[in-house]
Specification:
The structure holds two protein chains of two kinds. Chain A is mainly alpha-helical. Chain A contains ten helices and no strands. Chain A folds into two domains: about 90 residues, Alpha-helical ferredoxin (Fumarate Reductase Iron-sulfur Protein, Chain B, domain 2, Orthogonal Bundle), CATH 1.10.1060; about 80 residues, no CATH class. Helices cover about 55% and strands about 0% of the residues of chain A. In chain B, helix 1 packs across helix 12, helix 3 packs across helix 4 and helix 9 crosses helix 11. The chains are: A mainly alpha, B alpha/beta. At the A-B interface, helix 6, helix 7, helix 8, helix 9 and helix 10 of A face helix 2, helix 3, helix 5 and helix 9 of B.
Chain lengths: ~190, ~300
């Protein structure tokens, strides 16, 4: 008989895979929450989220906005007395939720991340105007218009190019990435 | 002449062209040649790590492998590019299996990475490899009386890379500003995050984070915020009007790259440093520099007589 892996085990295993400690040694001291500059905008603090993972509350964790509100500033990881790296945990949860296609529907992060990845796959470099449609999820048409106005201001100052920049050896670049993941899966 | 393999990063071609220009100009004054990494690609920013860690490392490995052929150390001016390239480099060096896997991918572009490249942030090159004394010697227009908030941002200092740069209480940015004659004001939020890519997707959170930074700099009576990262600059400067609209504030605080301030202090023309492309005018800073030659001459004259 094989026992199935618990949610807490799954997440901790992903943490180990990134070379960091698992969550089972968390002492719930809340140093991570105190260090976080974005904590006011999270529905669960990082400390509570770790507690929820350890308690197996999979649905509640995946429905949380906490990991998409993380800006990856590493303030928590620098201070955790148990050397857990909560900023890596947030990356793990982002990847986990994208794999499982299970995240809050009002989160822009997954769509923006996918768009970004596709843009780089096609050009080798980033191109900001290509991400504009991601805004429509957040601010509706109004939000998109606001971003277009903002873009025009930068354009007037010569800070946004009209056409995307591309790397020279794009074919090789794409073959390189396809040796890691099948491009059809992402594009 | 010191040479580096220079990784400009995508924003150097778009929103932060002024950082790129001022880096090359000030570098030339200090005898640094930034040799652009041939056919470099995006570092992956944060979205690649959100989607697939292995892919993120592959993007960085290609840049490291191309740079390795030149035998030069890599320099990145952007906090996020620096963090990604440095992180991937550490992982590749520590994990032979990962290196083998990524080298199989790199073969598609006739590349191989042997793990010998070092990665540095631009500001670390200036303060460690060039040094404050050499910088001081090149200053012709000291920024006397200019109050500057040194804003490190997050990924420049964190995670701790064990490279001698203190992640909790660094002072090199302030020291650099003093070396060019400016006054570094106490700025408690200097290591706090600018919100980074939260501006897309978590706009209110990002605007609030920027507001806190602007408030801290304004309370410290800063004339200008100095940054070492394109995303910090974009969020603090280009979104300043949005912050004002959202929170009913009226901040009008210029945000310049430290290389632009260095360039001004070394007598390089504002245009050559990309000044004039800001959404918040840098005029207060330029006025301070314009006053300088006369003031410096007046201050120097009595000393000359005494001598």
């Amino acid at each position: 008989m094989y026992s199935t892996l618990s949610f807490a085990d799954e997440i901790s295993n992903e943490m180990y895979a990134t070379g960091t400690r698992g969550l089972n040694c968390c002492i719930q001291c809340a140093t991570c929450s105190a260090a976080c500059p974005a904590v006011d905008f999270m529905d669960h603090t990082p400390r509570r989220l770790i507690g929820m993972i350890n308690a197996g509350m999979r649905e509640e964790v995946l429905n949380s906005n906490t990991y998409w509100v993380c800006a990856s500033c590493y303030a928590c990881s620098e201070r955790c007395p148990k050397e857990i790296k909560p900023s890596e945990l947030m990356y793990v949860l982002k990847r986990y939720s994208i794999w499982k296609n299970r995240y809050r529907s009002d989160m822009v992060g997954p769509e923006f991340s996918r768009r970004f990845v596709r843009t780089i796959m096609r050009n080798g470099k980033s191109y900001e105007p290509g991400y504009a449609p991601a805004f429509i999820f957040e601010g509706g048409v109004q939000g998109m218009l606001r971003e277009m106005q903002f873009g025009m201001k930068l354009l007037a100052k010569g800070r946004i190019p009209l056409v995307p920049s591309r790397i020279k050896r794009l074919d090789n670049f794409r073959r390189m990435l396809s040796r890691i993941v099948p491009l059809e899966g992402i594009e | 002449m010191k040479r580096y393999a220079y990784f400009p990063g995508c924003s150097a071609e778009t929103v932060s062209a002024s950082y790129h220009l001022s880096t090359v100009e000030t570098g030339a004054k200090l005898g640094i040649e930034f040799q652009e990494i041939e056919d470099w690609n995006c570092c992956g920013a944060t979205p690649y790590t959100n989607v697939d860690e292995l892919l993120a490392n592959t993007l960085c490995a290609r840049n490291l492998a191309i740079a390795e052929r030149t035998g030069l150390d890599v320099v990145a001016p952007c906090n996020a590019c620096f963090k990604n390239l440095h992180h991937a480099n550490e992982q590749l060096r520590a994990d032979a299996d990962l290196a083998e896997h990524l080298n199989y991918a790199l073969e598609a572009d006739d590349l191989h990475y042997g793990g010998t490249t070092q990665v540095h942030h631009l500001i670390h090159v200036f303060v460690r490899d060039i040094g404050f004394e050499a910088i001081r010697k090149k200053v012709t227009h000291p920024l006397k009386g200019l109050k500057v908030a040194a804003y490190y941002g997050c990924q420049l200092v964190r995670p701790d890379r064990g490279d001698g740069f203190d992640p909790a209480g660094p002072t090199y940015f302030e020291d650099l500003l003093r070396a060019i004659g400016a006054e570094a004001v106490p700025f408690p939020y200097r290591l706090r995050c600018c919100g980074a890519s939260l501006m897309i997707g978590q706009r209110r959170a990002a605007l609030a984070m920027v507001r806190d930074l602007l408030r801290g700099a304004a309370q410290a009576k800063a004339d200008v915020v100095a940054t070492a990262c394109p995303l910090c600059q974009l969020n603090l400067e280009a979104y300043q009007q949005d912050v004002n609209r959202e929170f009913g504030t009226s901040y009008e605080l210029p945000v310049l790259y430290f290389t632009q301030l260095m360039g001004l202090a070394m007598g390089i023309g504002p245009k050559k440093l990309g000044i004039g492309t800001e959404l918040v005018s840098a005029k207060p800073v330029l006025d301070c520099v314009a006053r300088k030659p006369a003031a410096v001459a007046a201050a120097a004259a009595p000393t000359a007589k005494v001598g």
